[in-house]
Design a protein that fits this description.
two-stranded antiparallel sheet; alpha/beta; Rossmann fold; 6-stranded parallel β-sheet; Dehydroquinate synthase-like, alpha domain; 13 helices; homodimer
């Protein structure tokens, strides 16, 4: 008996991203705010002022990427079970990328899915992480290796929360803004060169532009089968750098800034970008205090680290490259020689000339220690 | 600045369910078969005969619902990481509902989603659990409380795998077939009354009909916002019975059979079903050795257990009822009095007259022990 039953599951989710419009939020059910003590200390009072809710629970988790793990996730879930949350109740992720990723993942697996809202409080999560539904936790094998695609009900982006953001974290967010501009929108890039993101007005424009770009990309390709991969521009290199430095030396956005410069060197080598264009991108990153170089100690080891990435498919490294300003191309056929040549350019550079280390600048020995 | 960005994510997945067509499966990548030692012993050789694959990994997990937990899930995931599986590799769930639910959930969260195929080997998983993308694990708070909606790439239903199925497990599958017929298709129900599911020909027809019904329902409502809830007919009562008997006394399908009879009693009370219709349903279940009654010791305690269900929304118990044969209705406004009246009918019944207990039938004492 031939019984091939075709089965079609369609799901469409449509939600809104609001910029500077968080006045009042009302819920007729239970709400849990997931946050960390630092964000809570600065901003929880502001959030609570506009919140109307039947029953409110506040769950704080320790601050930092190292807590984005199964153990913290279990504690969040257990808390929700203890308070008998059900599918129609709501979680609010109130914090940076760590809080957003972990809350989103908890929301996606709690009773097979519960509502959640993102209220990102860092520039990086406002322009990038909070939009697009990537959620997850780290494990001993790497970053974000366990997770889900789970879209929030809404995203509220409030620039007032950035007023307490340390300048390194601000810069880290700028790196992702630059990423969007370079790969999708030359006009936006030129505008960024003239703008001052420290002014709230310009910052709002940049956030809106970045979010629109990301929303467009994700609506075309939620599960990263094609176009969405372009958002990993700079990240292939950045992940290796983060891994080699134990996720301690650079903020994610800082590693991305370096990764963008490395990817651009490859673009220049392949004739996709002019030296002048690469220089403009580097200059823009440096204007916001971002590192743009990194001392590679062992080129072969650096190269082998590309294969640990979950996006490295079938032993082919996928490089996302800028192709003239505002354009992009995904390449998985770049020769090892070409990559090595680019990496070689980072073997003699002095990575210690970053803003972020106050070690004495006189001794070459410190440089070696830093790279461990 | 008003910046409300509308964001639309559409995902459409379309896949096939094959009945008795598992001849050959080819993969140009890594494949992991997740199974248990019992199923492997009976049927793995048959599966391997038709399998062409680049690299094959077989992961066996202990047999039984009590292993459908975080610990087993972690072991599966760790195994995949150790063998460097990536998003384009494939998991095959080869077993009953426990294997399917756990493999599906692992597939949904491993690197935010990896391919998986269902090859169910029990009747219950063939007609119900393998179709529709519900995946998950149990925790100390209850069954399937952590999980995801994650659709497989394909489902292969092979009736030959049922030849080694114990008759209690066969009956448990029949309960779900009866569920589909009663709530969606009166003709199918009449056909079932005449058919003999122990014959392979009739069984194939019944499986195909059940799967088509389920596929239709899920394609209308994947996330169980409405219609899909009808598939929980009998389950509201069954979950309480399973919980009260520690998930040990009845197979899930057996508890569903009892739950169907309880739900029907409520339907009869509300004038939705005639006594004769309820009697025909009960007779059909009993023909396949299914239990249709259960001794309730404490009515109030039984009633309170409804509120532990993840589908019990906002303190309203949702009852899914048959409304004439082939029809259904979801009611959340049934009075406690009406429910109690129905439950009261189960306080004096002799639940020991089931096929499955070989305890002496002379002593009332044993009955009490059984209900603990």
């Amino acid at each position: 008996m031939k019984s091939d039953i075709k089965f079609d599951v369609q799901s469409s989710r449509d939600y809104s991203i609001y910029i500077d419009e968080l006045k009042e939020l009302s819920f007729s059910r239970k709400v849990a705010i997931i946050t960390n003590p630092k964000v809570a200390g600065f901003h929880l009072q502001t959030l609570l002022q506009g919140l109307k809710v039947d029953a409110l629970f506040i769950i704080t988790v320790p601050d930092g990427e190292s807590y984005k793990n199964q153990q913290t996730l279990d504690l969040i879930l257990e808390n929700l079970f203890n308070h008998q949350f059900n599918r129609n109740d709501t979680l609010i992720a109130f914090g940076g990328g760590v809080i957003g990723d972990m809350t989103g993942f908890a929301a996606s697996i709690y009773q097979r899915g519960i509502n959640f809202i993102q209220i990102p409080t860092t520039l990086l999560s406002q322009v990038d992480a909070s939009v697009g539904g990537k959620t997850g936790i780290n494990n001993k094998f790497g970053k974000n290796l366990i997770g889900a695609f789970h879209q929030p009900q809404a995203v509220y982006i409030e620039t007032q929360f950035l007023e307490t953001l340390p300048s390194r974290e601000f810069g880290a967010g700028v790196a992702e803004i630059v990423k969007m501009a370079v790969t999708f929108d030359a006009d936006f890039f030129s505008w960024l060169e003239e703008a001052d993101l420290k002014s709230r007005k310009d910052l709002q424009v940049a956030i809106r532009k970045s979010v629109e770009t990301k929303a467009y990309v994700v609506s075309q390709d939620e599960k990263e089968k094609g176009l969405r991969a372009v958002l990993n521009y700079g990240h292939t290199f950045a992940h290796v750098i983060e891994n080699l430095t134990g996720y301690k030396r650079y903020l994610h956005g800082e590693a991305v800034a370096i990764g963008i410069c490395m990817a651009n060197d490859l673009s220049v080598k392949l004739g996709l970008l002019t030296k002048s264009e690469a220089g403009r991108i580097k200059a823009l990153l440096e204007r916001y205090g971002l590192p743009t170089t990194y001392k590679i100690d062992d080129i072969e080891d650096f190269y082998q680290h590309f294969f640990l990435d979950k996006k490295t498919d079938n032993a082919k490294i996928k490089f996302i490259l800028a192709s003239t300003l505002g354009g992009n191309v995904i390449k998985d056929d770049i020769t090892k020689e070409d990559v090595i040549t680019v990496l070689d350019g980072y073997c003699t550079c002095n990575s210690i000339n970053s803003l972020y280390f106050t070690l004495p600048r006189t001794s070459q020995l410190h440089l070696t220690n830093l790279s461990i």
